[in-house]
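Just curious. Protein, please.
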Amino acid sequence: MTKLAQLLDEVRGCDQCKHMLPLGPRPLVQAGHTAALIIIGQAPGVRAHQGGVPWDDASGARLRDWMGIEKSLFYDVKKVALMPMGFCYPGTGTGGDMPPRPECAPRWHVPILDSLPSIELKVLIGRYAIDYYTERAYRTLTDAVRDYASLLPNQIALPHPSPRNNRWLKRNPWFEEQTLPLLKNQIRSLLKD
């Protein structure tokens, strides 16, 4: 068993927050030693928790469309790593899912990233990932997403692809006009065979 496989087994066996998780622990992560792209999101939703597959919902479909990749490539561990800020479903709050559990990223992110030597691009989805991984303090999520040029070539910030963000997308047409073509080109060149 490789070092990465052992680490992923440890992550998947983690129950540190079990008393704070309404559905119990079910850490979700995908990583392979040769992955060139890592998608760092918030936390699995209830559907991902129940099915054991991250991004297997409308948000995932929109994210794959934004990136210009097929589902089979998205779930190819040799090319794409999926690592949330919180590895388990955190439960539902008043405006949607609760924030990711704060224990996960400090405990698991560095060892996982250290085991992925081929990562060339981090796609940071949502405010939690953006705040954790960018050195600049952005006033708003929109400011971070709009600042894509300063984050590339190693990182890019995206809003969450949830249907709940349709209003944000309508108010920010530059995102689909400017950012998404850039993202698709970067990913196409990164994941070409």
Summary: The chain has a mean pLDDT of 95.
